[in-house]
Every structure is written in structure tokens, then in C-alpha cells.
Backbone:
């Protein structure tokens, strides 16, 4: 039988970032993962810290801005614990808008920023936005966790969580655990079991590819439209490749890659940057984003479950929101005032009528 202050289900970017923050505050932490740490959405992502993406819900902005403010200290802590520095690969994004309202660049101005961009019918503006390599981040985060006393259990699925008095009893595939408090950070699987009844978190599949950037193309920033993005890797072992994504599919837990979808993504990219049409393809993959009906995460106490909490449903922004999620959930667990108003992310908030409880 295992006893701990905090037990976290899910060793993705959210769960492990939270574990580190709680450990920093002096709490004993156990993390249980049904598979391998950081093997799902955390390393399938493109790595854009896209707080200003116009496709984000407006209510996400306070949490996103908080996370951006915390990111430098977050990366510094990972570096100190792991010895691995996680660099930013880009510091700007050309963002397409549906129309020319607002301040957008003329074709002449765009040609100075990215000469090989063909804007077609897109209207672009330049956003101050960073991106990083999620695989690099994952390696540093896992090494940081392993350098501490955090108790990490792989291949350990939480089957049921039962609140008993002032603690929570967790039944898993590898025995029973007891914790003062339990947090469900299992991403797309958050409501696939009995851990969060009544909440709607569903997987949204995203297929992606990586290509080698042609030597004739200088691509120092991200290019993003409503249906596609191109994210270059500019440093480290993956320098010289570009990530092109991503589909959004409601197909359950299917991660099969379809060549027709990959070809469509490449065609969208090549329509904007023709030099990518024949770029050598290096890799294809698919991930499962944890989505909610209003595209906002669930952060806070689980409904009708004493000492149980949820931090899941980050959809396309798990990499961006990890530091802020760790910060505000730690504040909730330790009784501190929250850095921001969390009502928009409450697990008990009203949801669109189309929401289906899992």
C-alpha cells in the first residue's frame, strides 16, 4: 500500500509539470501513467506557444498569458534539474486572417519578411510568438522529474478513485494507492474511465508530417492559417526540418496515418510556400488532442468527489498551458488565492448543449 500527499494520474506535459511544481512546494508526489510518460499528445505537438492564435476561445487568453509569463522560469528550472536547455526555435509567426480588416501586411511587405511566401487570398499579420521542440521539452521534463523524489510509476492505470474521509483510495492495475489529494491529468483519456463522470473530454486526432527544408528556402518563423501551420526547427538535431499540420478529426482513439490526408496538408503548405512541394518527407505521425465542448480546459475540483481534482482538456494548447496549469492547480491544492479567475475553466461550468457526458 502506497501513501503520498498528492497522486497524479497521467505523466504527460500537464501531469509532470504539475508534479514538479508540487514537489517544489515540499509535497510528496506520486505519478501514475497507464503507458509511457510523454508518449501521447505531449510529443505529437508542433510546439507553438500560440496565445494569440485567433482560433483560440477568447476566454483562454488569461490562462495563456499567465503561462507565457511563467515560461522562462519553467524552462530555467528544467535546465537546472535536468542539465538540458530547451531553446526557442522561432520568435515570430505570420498569422493569416479571414479578411484584411485590421493591420495586415501588403504583398510587398510580406516579400521582405518571407520572400518565397505566396499569400494567395490570405491576409497576414506578424505575431510576437515563440515555438519550441516538444520532444526536447519532454526529454528535459522527464529528466527533471527523475532527478527528484517524485515517485513515477509507468504501465499503471488508475481504475477507480474513491474518496474516503480526508483521503482518496486509488485502485490501479498495480495495486492500491492512497493520497491526501488526487488529480486526473490523463488528457484525452480523462473521461474514458470512471475517474471523471459527467465531464466531456474527447480525443481529436491530428495528423502531421515533417519535411526537410530545401536549401533554397530560408524559413525563420512560423506560418499559420486557419487550417494549416508550418513550424520550422532552427536549432539542435532536428534543425532544417519543418513540421506541417494538422488535421482535426473526431474519430475516437484512432491514430492511423492516412497518406491522402498527409498529401492534402503538404498541398496546403506548398500553396503558400511552393518550395515545400517537393521537399523530402522525413516523418509522419498522429496524436490525440484532449478536447472539450467549448475548447477550454477543465481545471479544478472534480464534481461530487472530495479531494479529487481534474486538469485536462487542453486541446491544442497543452505545451503552451503547462506552466500556468501547474501554477494554478498547485495554488488550489495548497489553499492559495488563484493568480487568475478560474471560473471559465471550472469543471462545473455550463457547457454547450451538444456536450455529451462520458
Residues:
Amino acid at each position: 500500500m502506497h501513501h503520498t500527499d498528492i497522486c497524479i494520474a497521467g505523466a504527460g506535459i500537464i501531469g509532470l509539470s504539475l508534479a514538479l511544481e508540487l514537489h517544489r512546494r515540499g509535497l510528496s508526489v506520486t505519478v501514475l501513467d497507464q503507458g509511457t510518460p510523454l508518449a501521447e499528445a505531449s510529443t505529437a505537438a508542433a510546439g507553438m506557444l500560440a496565445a494569440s492564435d485567433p482560433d483560440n476561445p477568447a476566454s483562454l487568453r488569461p490562462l495563456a498569458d499567465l503561462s507565457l509569463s511563467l515560461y522562462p522560469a519553467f524552462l530555467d528550472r528544467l535546465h537546472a534539474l535536468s542539465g538540458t536547455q530547451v531553446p526557442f526555435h522561432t520568435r515570430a509567426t505570420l498569422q493569416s486572417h479571414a479578411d484584411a480588416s485590421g493591420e495586415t501586411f501588403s504583398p510587398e511587405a510580406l516579400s521582405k519578411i518571407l520572400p518565397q511566401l505566396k499569400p494567395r487570398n490570405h491576409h497576414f499579420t506578424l505575431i510576437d510568438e515563440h515555438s519550441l521542440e516538444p520532444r526536447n521539452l519532454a526529454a528535459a521534463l522527464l529528466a527533471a522529474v527523475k532527478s527528484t523524489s517524485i515517485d513515477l510509476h509507468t504501465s499503471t492505470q488508475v481504475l477507480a478513485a474513491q474518496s474516503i474521509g480526508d483521503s482518496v483510495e486509488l485502485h490501479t492495475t498495480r495495486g492500491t494507492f492512497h493520497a491526501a489529494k488526487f488529480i486526473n491529468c490523463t488528457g484525452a483519456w480523462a473521461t474514458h474511465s470512471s475517474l471523471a463522470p459527467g465531464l466531456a473530454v474527447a480525443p481529436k486526432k491530428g495528423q502531421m508530417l515533417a519535411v526537410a527544408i530545401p536549401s533554397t528556402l530560408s524559413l525563420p518563423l512560423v506560418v499559420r492559417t486557419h487550417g494549416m501551420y508550418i513550424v520550422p526547427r532552427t536549432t539542435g538535431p532536428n534543425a532544417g526540418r519543418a513540421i506541417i499540420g494538422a488535421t482535426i478529426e473526431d474519430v475516437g482513439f484512432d491514430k492511423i496515418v492516412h497518406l491522402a490526408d498527409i498529401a492534402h496538408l503538404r498541398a496546403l503548405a506548398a500553396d503558400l510556400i511552393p518550395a515545400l512541394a517537393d521537399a523530402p518527407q522525413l516523418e509522419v505521425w498522429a496524436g490525440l488532442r484532449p478536447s472539450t465542448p467549448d475548447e477550454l480546459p477543465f481545471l479544478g475540483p472534480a464534481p461530487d468527489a472530495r479531494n479529487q481534482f481534474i486538469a485536462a482538456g487542453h486541446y491544442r494548447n497543452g505545451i503552451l498551458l503547462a506552466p500556468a496549469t501547474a501554477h494554478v492547480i498547485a495554488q488550489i491544492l495548497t489553499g492559495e488565492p488563484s493568480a487568475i479567475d478560474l471560473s471559465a475553466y471550472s469543471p462545473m461550468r455550463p457547457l454547450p448543449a451538444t456536450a455529451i457526458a462520458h
